[in-house]
Records
---
Amino acid sequence: MTASTVVPPQSIGVDTESISAIDYLQHLHQFLVTQKQRTQRSARQKMPVYWRQLIEVGVPIDTAKLLAWAIVRYEVAKIIPTPQQQQLLRHYSRFICRAGLWRSNLLR
C-alpha cells in the first residue's frame, strides 16, 4: 500500500457517522503500521524457508541467501529485483524452478 492509496474508513473498521478527521487519521495510521508489520513478519518467515529450499536443490549457501531475499521481496512487496539479482536469477533459474520458487514476473 502506498501513500497515494485511498483507504475507505469502512475498510479499517471505522464508523464514518461518528468519527472526526483526527480520529480517522489515527485509525488509518494504525492500520498502515499493522499492514507493514504483517508484511515484514511474512518476509522474515519466508526467507529461511526459501533459503533452505534453494540449498537443498544445489544452490551455494551465500547465493541461495541472495536469491531467497530477492524472491521474498518480490513476492511480499512486489519489489523488482536489481540487475545483479536478475542476473543471478537467470543463472540459477533451473534450480529456482526445481525448488518451486519461480514467480512468473520475477524478471520483468
---
Amino acid sequence: MKTFGAIVLFIVVGIIFWGILMAISEANMPVNEYIYLQPGEGGNVILFLYAIFLTICFFAVMNKLWNYMKYKTGRSKEPFEWKSFISGFLLFAGIPHLIFLPLLYFAVHNYIAFTEKEVVVAPFWDLTNHRYSWDAIDAIEAGYEYDEGSYYGDYTLYFIDGRDWNLWEEDADVAAKIVEIDRLAKTLGVEKEFWNMPYSNDLYHWSDESDVSSETLHELFMN
C-alpha cells in the first residue's frame, strides 16, 4: 500500500512540474496573432524528461529531510551528515541541471507558427527563427498508415531549403486548425500530394478510434 501511495505521489508531483514547465514554455511562445502555433515534438520530450528529473530531485531532498527529522527527534540513531548530503546532491543534480538548462532553452523556443503571409519555424537546435513566405513551401504531403489496428496520420510541410514539419496529431482541436492551414494553402496555390489516400471506410474507422471527425479526415486526406 505504501508503494502504491508513493507511486501516486510521484506521478502527482511529476504532473505539477510538467504543468509548470509547460506554462513556462507557453509564456515564451510568440504573442503575435497566429492562425495556428504548434510546439515542436523535440521540445515536448525535453520538458517531459526534465519534469521527471525535477521530480526525482524533489523526492531525494524530501527523503533526506525526513531522515534528518527522524534523527533530530530521536527516532533514528543513524547520524545525519549535511556535508555528504549536499556534496552528493550537487553531484547528482548539479551536473544534469547544467545539461538540461541549455536544452530547456531550446525546448521552449521550438515551434512552428502560421499567419496569412508567412510561416515561422523555430527548429530545436537553432538560436534563430526562420521565416518563410507561403511560396517557400515546396509541397505538402498527406497520407496515413494502418499498423497493428491503429491509424497514423501524416500532414507534412516541405520547405524549399530542405526543412520539413509534420503537423499531424490525433487531436480534434489540432486537426481543426490543420484544416484552416490546409484551406489557406489551397487558396495560396501550395501543391498538395498524397502518398497514401485512405478509403471512405478507413476514415470512418479512423474517426471511431480517435477524437477527429470523419468530415475533418475526409477534407484533409481525400481533397
---
Amino acid sequence: MKKTVILFLAMLLAGTTASGQDKAQRIKDIREAYAQAKKDMADNGKGGFPPLDIHIALSSGTEVSEDFIINDEREVDIFFKRIHQRPDTDLFDPHCYFIVEKWSANGHTSYREMLFDPFADGLMFSYMKVETHAGAVIESRYYYDGEGRCIEQKPEVGGMAWSSAETDLTKAKAYLAIFDALMLAKGADTATPVMQSTADKARQMQHIRSVYAEAKQKVEKDAKSELPRNVQVTIRDCEDFEMPAQKDVLKFWFDEVTDGDTTLSSCYFMSSTTSLGDHNVYSEYLYEPKASTPVFCFSQQKQNAGPAIEWRYYYDKGGKCIDIKGNADRNGPGFADREKAAGYQKIFRAIIDTLD
C-alpha cells in the first residue's frame, strides 16, 4: 500500500514538474514571439517592401445635454503577413500576427495589445492598460496556451482588472473575423445583377434619388460636425510582391436609431476607394434608411488617362435590380452590386459590435 502511495505521489510530482516546465517554455516562446512581432511592426513598409496593415477608426459622438457631449474615438491597427501555406498554389495567404486597440472618451483612455501565433490563428498574449480621468491606472496581462487556455495572468485572480482572459479571447476572435471578412471583400467582384422590370419603377427611382440626396447632405454635415459618426477602414496590402501594392479605403456613415429601449447604429451610406498602380476604382453604396438594405450602387473605374467607366445599379426594397445605367457593357465586370453592398453592411455591423 505504501509503495502504491509513494508511486502515485512520484507520478503526481513528475506531472506537476513537467507542467511547470511546459508553462515556462510557453511563456518564453510568447515573449520571443512578442519581440519579433514588435520588430516586424517597426519594419512594416520599409526595406523596399510594401506595408501590410489595416487601420480602423471609429468616431461616435453623443450629445448627452446642451452642456455635455461625449466624443467616443476608437482606433484599431491590424498587422499581418502574407504566408505561403498551401504548397499546391502560388498564393500567399494573409495572416494576422498583432492587433493594437486604442480608445478615448472624455478623459478616459484604454490601450490594448493582442499577439497571435505566427503560424496559427490562436491568441498567445493580451495586454490592456486603462487610465481614468481621475488618474487611476489599471493594467492586465494574459498568457495563453495553444488551446486558448489562460496559463498566467497579471494581476492574479481576484485582483483589479478592466478585462478578463475570457473577454480578451472573445474580442480577439471577433477581430480575426473582421480581418478575414475584410480580406475576403477587398477587391472581390461578383456577377452583374440582372435587371428586372417592375410596375412601380418610376416611384421607386424617385424614392432612391431622394434617399441619395438626403444621405449626401448628412455626409457633408458629418464632415463639419463636432460629433461625427463614421467608421473609416484603410487596408494596405500586396497579394503578389511582383505587382504594385494595393490600398483600399472604406468609409461608413451611420445614425443612431432608437427602437423601443434599444439604440442601434444604422449605416445609411458607404464608399470605397481602391488604388492599384494606375488602376483606380471608386464606389458608393446607398442603404434604405433603418432597414440597412442596399438600394443603389455606383462604381467608377479609371486606368491611366483613359476614359472613366461607370456603372449604376438601382434596387427596389425587395432586392430586385430595377435599372442599370452606365457607359459599359452590362455583362462586364460588376464592381458595385447588391451582394457586395450587403457584405460591407455585415462588416460594418461586426466593427460596431466589436469596438463598442
